[in-house]
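Hi support team,

I'm filing this because I wasn't sure whether my run with zinc ion finished correctly. The job status page said complete, but I'd like someone to confirm that the output block is well-formed before I use it downstream. Pasting the exact inputs I used:
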Amino acid sequence: MFGKTKQKSELRFDVVNKDWVVVAEGRGKRPEDFKKKKQEEVVDNMPCAFCDYFCSEKFRDKNFAVVPNKFPAFFLQKNKETKSENALFQKIPSNGFHEVVVFNDHSKQLWDFSFNEWEELLGIYQQRYIDLSKEDFVNYVSVFHNHGKMAGASLIHPHSQIMGIPFFDKNISSPLNSSKEFFKEKSQCLFCAINRAEKSAKTRIIFENSNFLAMCPFASKVNFEIVISPKNHLPYFEKISEQEKSDLAQIFQIVLAKINKGLGSPDYNFYLKTSPCDDREYPFFHWHFTIMPRISVWAGFELGTGIEIITMPPEKAADYLKKIKI
Ligand SMILES: [Zn+2]
Ligand SMILES: [Zn+2]
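And here is everything the job wrote out:
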């Protein structure tokens, strides 16, 4: 199925920073629509387009509906080539998939999810990953969740997103390269080494079960950043076992409930980093989820230098969340 012709999306290469940006015109509005409005909150639109899915026969009795994003950043395009303007301004069509996993309750947030709902959601992430990664032109599958205006969510109705994309840039290639180099030098996985060091330090661990650790990373990029990392060495998220999925559901449920109670229902993002699906092998990588509460914004220094300033040491953040009773 091809995207509607009025939608346009392309990838542009940034020759200075050597990374890519997506210009998805179909998602945008008129330039005037970007004027700062007095009311900046996420609008609780009723009737809600996401609620409508659950009136249909197909999804009526379901907990989740997986549907194509109506304003995709990536979609199947008829034109496989986009003419670049010149050597400095290169662009290609943003071919791919952009799906939404819509939850059936308009006002129930992830921190209210039962264990079974978490398990089902993670199963959907896994299955959609497997399906999208089968396409030749999909080289990376991104799974993420935005909650709240500060986290970029435009609709209040809870939903996760999954994108199958043709490329990945330095946010993925940088951890891939670090773990590859570490593996070459020390014959062990960087993330397994970090997990062992965190286990012995104890100070940044919030919660653990048989298969996962939840911790505030030593060099957290935002206040209360949390990483959920498998204890076993697992390079490919799509190969997660039933037992691992069950333990991941438990740790997500507990950690998000702690964030909700301890930080007053903040806006947040979480996302998966896993090995690419570009037919290469990544035995040195170790998938993990990162949860980023959006309780402060990047200012000029962060934007200008890329160096984040945080005000809550990860040790204190972890200790605080560890002690939150849920
Ligand atoms: Zn709704
Ligand atoms: Zn590992």
